[in-house]
Design goal:
eight-stranded mixed sheet, Rossmann fold, alpha/beta, single chain
Amino acid sequence: MITNLSKINSLLSEWIREIRDVDIQNDRMRFRRNMERIGEIAAYEISKELPYKLISVQTPMGQSECYELEFQPVLATILRAGVPLHQGLLNYFDKADNAFVAGYRKHHRDGSFEIEQHYFTCPDVSGSPLIIADPMLATGSSLILALETIIDMGAPSQIHIVCAIACEEGIELLQRKFPTAHIWAGAIDDELTARGYIVPGLGDAGDLAFGSKKQA
């Protein structure tokens, strides 16, 4: 299932516009905060899809019947670009355990690239909803590798994928690999370049959030 959050009229559309706008996006603090806000909106929408249980709580005046999550989700992200989006999810699912994957594109001189994954830490995800954040769903290669690594640790009850910008090609590949996953996208673009960049997209989310980098 795919949910394009920008198709629902909300403030999220304003934040998508700002992270795309070259006159605004170079304000790193604002860029990170907008990514965080997108994560918060996604968290709220995902919360509607999770199972709840009825509990009784004591108030100063008596008993009240309330609902709480039956299972806390596990939140995951791909370092470093996914950190602000992940923080938005964590702001709402503040009791969740967390998983982190360090992955990046290792570029070759001919313009091709492969995904390198050097660090991984993850709690037990067996039977829990898994929510993974990656700001840009381009080819889908890094997300697929991260998900395969996490799922090797146990089978989650649900898989939710959160991204600020997605492209059709990456979505189609993810759907083939994980047909039951729910993809939540801030916006969906049609074009992916030969070098694996989304058009119009927004550029390099990691660089915009944290500054340019050198690869060794």
